[in-house]
Every structure is written in C-alpha cells, then in structure tokens.
Amino acid sequence: MDRGQTQGKRKRAEEESTEGAATSSFIPLEATCVGSGQYEVFLSFRGSDTRNTFTDHLYHRLIKARTVPFCVFRDENNIQIGEEFGSKILDAIAQSKISIPIISENYASSKWCLRELVHIMDRKKSASHIVLPIFYKVAPSDVRHLKGNFGNAFHSSQERFDEKEILKGQQALNEVSQLNGWESQKIANGYFT
C-alpha cells in the first residue's frame, strides 16, 4: 500500500473516531496546530454554557472546513496539563487572525471570558484583527444594555471583579454587541431565517 492510501485510511479512521463526539477525543496534531503558536481562529466561550455543545460542533467544523484545516485555538486542545493558561490564551489571541466570541448567557459572569473579550476588542482596534461574534441564546441588545439573564449573570458576579475589570468588561461587551454577528435565535435547523 502506498503512502497516500495509508494516509487516506488513517484520515478516515480519525474522522470516524471524532464523529459525534461531545468533547474532543482524538484530533490530529496538524489539524489543531498544537505548538505552532499561530492560529487563524480563536474561540472565546463560556465552557459551562457551550463547551460540549455548540462550541464543540463549531470547532470540529472549522478544523474540517477545507482541504488544509484552519488552525483553531480552543483551550482544552491547546493548553497542556500543568501549563499556565493566562499568558497562553492572551498570546493565542494576539497570534490569531480571527476571533469568534461566543456570547452566551453566563459569558459575562466569567472573569476570564471578559479578559479575553477586552483583549480581542483591543486587538481589533490596533490591528487587522477580525471579530465575528456569535450571540448564543442571548440578544445583542441584552449584551449591550446588560439586561435579561445575561445582565443578571454579569451583575451577580461583580463582587469577584475589581472596578477596572468591570468598566473594561462593560466597554468590551458594548463594543462587541455593536458588531454585526450571528444570532442563534434567528437560526432554524442550522439556517438563518
């Protein structure tokens, strides 16, 4: 069997092993660009809201989107056990061409999600960084005005943040909510309505 046939069989086996997986099981290193430091896409999301559902699906679709897979940063695939994650995450944002913040109901209750978003929006201002927000089960107006369940989650977690983090987080949330993004509530069966 020649090298091309062997690689084709291995690729089919890898795809079958990840098909329908709720979390990442086996993903080839070249697909996720582990260790390269260069990413095309950075996913920012609240793990408890979307990690095993929407974000997992999006991640797998992005890495399989074309003949040469996108290099996608997702914390559980790109930060090894025992590594300090804060600087790795901020470096990954800085090295990415595109950020996709998946703004969900509890996104703003996470100090790290807000730090990521502040960094993403700062990069958008200072570089040719593309931000493609997804409003997952929240309305952009609730993000902008900190209303509804989204606003409640933000306000209930403020005691864990210092004043500077709160103000920067509010500004970044306002900025991202002004961007044209995808709204899950306007999608039916995977198609925009």
Model description:
The chain has 193 residues and is of the alpha/beta class. It contains ten helices and eight strands. Strands 1, 2, 3, 4, 5 and 6 form a six-stranded parallel beta sheet that branches. It has a two-stranded antiparallel sheet with strand order 7-8. Strand 3, helix 7 (111-126) and strand 4 form a beta-alpha-beta unit. Helix 6 (85-95) runs parallel beside helix 7 and helix 7 (111-126) crosses helix 10 (163-177). The longest helix has 16 residues, at 3-18. The relative contact order is 0.12.
Key structural traits:
single chain, about 190 residues, alpha/beta, two-stranded antiparallel ribbon, 10 helices, disordered N terminus
Distance from N terminus to C terminus (CA atoms, Å) equals 48 Å
Structural class: alpha/beta
Number of helices, where a helix is a run of at least 4 consecutive DSSP H or I residues = 10
What shape does the CA trace take? Answer: globular
* Annotation, overall tally of beta strands: 8
* Overall pLDDT level: 77
Low-confidence stretches: 1-32
| Biggest sheet details | 6 strands, parallel
Order of helices and strands: HHEHHEHHEHEEHHHEEE
Approximate helicity band: 40-55%
Tell me what portion of residues adopts beta-strand conformation: 5-15%
Rg from alpha-carbon coordinates: 18 Å
Short description:
This protein is an alpha/beta fold and 193 residues long. Helices cover 49% and strands 14% of the residues. The N terminus is likely disordered.
Topology:
Elements: H1 3-18, H2 29-32, E1 39-45, H3 47-50, H4 54-63, E2 72-73, H5 75-78, H6 85-95, E3 96-103, H7 111-126, E4 130-131, E5 134-135, H8 140-145, H9 148-156, H10 163-177, E6 182-183, E7 187-188, E8 191-192
Parallel strand pairs: 1-2, 1-3, 3-4, 3-5, 5-6
Antiparallel strand pairs: 7-8
